Amino acid sequence: MRVFVTGASGWIGSAVLPELIAAGHDVLGLARSDASAAAVTAAGAEVHRGSLDDLDSLRTGAAAADAVIHLAFKHDFTDYAGAGRTERAAVTAIGDTLAGSGRPFLFASGVALLTPGRVATEHDPNPMRGPEAPRGGAENLAFEYTDRDVRTVSLRFAPTVHGPGDHGFVAELVRIAKEHGVSAYAGDGTNRWPAVHRSDAAALVRLALEASPGSIVHAVAEEGVPALDIATAIGQGLGLPVTSATPDHFGWLGPFFAADIPASSALTQKQLGWTPTHPTLLEDLAAGHYFTAR
Question: Which residue in 277, 169, 260, 184 sits closest to 223, CA to CA?
């Protein structure tokens, strides 16, 4: 299968590319810069130059493929509404290109804030609708294309996709702990964060592509790691005291890290035969690479 992948050189995409290629797929990877193009080439994929802002590049990439895996997203929390508008435009461009073809359209979404305080499952609808919603309400927008003969698959990733080289939420928590001289959690620390190892997530993306169930899959290996346990592991790794703090302590990350957002992947594992096998979040923290990385 010829697969067009956006975010091909990103944190998740760079793990998905070798997974797809090893399974015999022909990959066309979107690359915005020369560095991204070099990374895509090194992975054994073909380069397609363009960006999320270049909608024509998304249309031509999608038109040239048997399937699309859309993993790119502007993680700009200083202009999150703008990032949502970009995402909505990208989903529209890809969806319109695939309409009437029966081809798979897999796209990155998330389990965060679906059902705060309760374990989210694949049956839970996404409450974020419309262009002003987080991520531009892109998941519900994408599913509108199922009525236009597109096999839409939402890849709902855990908020923490961890592993060596991670520069996401957990790396930010480590940075904040270094800055303040304490490793903190919000409230009593019982709120839960789902997590998945990057390599397990990449394997799931390939399985979801090959099955193309036309539904929702949860890239979640751990239903919910207590924030206190995360803060304790960071404190041990940095040799810092562990304490409770208000959400403001974490800056823009505060509302997320203070939320109780557990999620299950039981249905995904049963449907696709996916079994996470890589280290847990706490095992990755204990390995030390989060504390030695630049």
Answer: 260
